[in-house]
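FAQ: What does the model actually see?

It sees only this:
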Amino acid sequence: MNFKAALIALGLSTALVGMVQAADNTVSKKITLTAQINDALFVSKPDGSTWYGTEELEAADYTQKKFSKTLPVRVWSTSDEFNVSLAQPLKLSNGNYEMANAVVGLGDQTVTYGAPLSVTQTTAGVGGYDQVHNLAISVDAPTKVGAVSTNGSYSGDLVMIFEPVAAVAP
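And it is asked to produce this:
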């Protein structure tokens, strides 16, 4: 590489770094969702081929006291039942504060840490059962203590375990 090309490359990389740093003034609220899958159970977005990455919780109104997100989750299983639970409690924090009253629901039932929730699938699919369920996440904003502001980016991981339930032979 000649000297001119090296100078141009150095100048472009410096400009790109400056642009990335300048664009880093955003506020982000996110959770990362994961699923464990085996050959008796498949969990995905409704399109059947992908899973969620990072999702932003939305404020209920201008007061920003409650945040939530509803995500459609497709579950294919060989049995008409599967279990779902949280692998760890859902915690969203910014270093100073933690959002309160985190609730995770699948359909009209609450998913908790350490206690598997049994879900019955009612829609038959190819080779098993195939149904879309609404995954609802909600949290309350923290209450300000003293002079420490509640402003900032809160993040955490929602880690769920989906387990097949063996079909009972007649």
